Amino acid sequence: MQYLTKELAAVAAVAGPQLTSAELETQKYLAEFAVVCAQVEATPRELRMERAAAVLATIATPADVEAVRAAYWMRLPLAARMVAVMSARMPKERASDALCKFDALERGRIWCEVAKLRAQLEIAQKCMNGGRMPAPAGGVH
Predict the structure, then answer these.
(1) Would the pTM of this model clear 0.70, i.e. be above it?
(2) Alpha carbon of 106 to those of 85, 102, 103: distances in Å?
(3) DSSP letter string over 39-69?
(4) Contact between 70 and 98 (Cβ < 8 Å)
(5) pLDDT tens-digit profile of 18-67?
(6) Res 141 pLDDT > 70
């Protein structure tokens, strides 16, 4: 057996490591993937964005996208919509309005103020970590 081990070691040294068919397929796929990645990298960013927008336009029209936004808006709890519009210093009654009642500037104000509010709420949430546990009620341990 010893002589066979030496012979196999010599063959492996000459032939190099042997790959399975799955490993060979994976190697081929990764090489093709690297070529595609290089092509994407070589394409100017603006052109990539235009192409992505063109694909998106074939999938969903702006009206479809707006209808989805409107449905999400109306499904939000009224309290959440009130917080959103009030954060932009708009009357809380606007929370009952359909999304189409808000123009682009109003939506932009709400977007910016909600982003600020989310950041502030995240800090408030972090402040709420810890604290002492309350004493047991009625002296029960």
Answers:
(1) no
(2) 9, 6, 5
(3) HHHHS-HHHHHHHHHHHHHHH--HHHHHHHH
(4) yes
(5) 778 888 899 999 999 999 999 989 999 999 999 988 888 888 888 888 99
(6) no
Q: At what angle do helices 78-87 and 104-127 cross, to 10 degrees?
A: 100
Measured CA to CA, the distance from residue 61 to residue 64 in angstroms comes to: 5
pLDDT score of 16 more than 80: no
CA dist., res. 108 & res. 114, Å (int) = 10
Question: What gap in Å lies between CA 32 and CA 88, rounded to an integer?
Answer: 50
Closest CA to 102 of 87, 86, 115, 85: 85
Tokens of 36: 């595609």
Residue 60 corresponds to which tokens in the numbers above? 């969903």
Strand blocks (E) in 87-126? none
Percent of the chain scored above 90 by pLDDT? 64
HSE at residue 57, side-chain half, CA atoms within 13 A, is 6
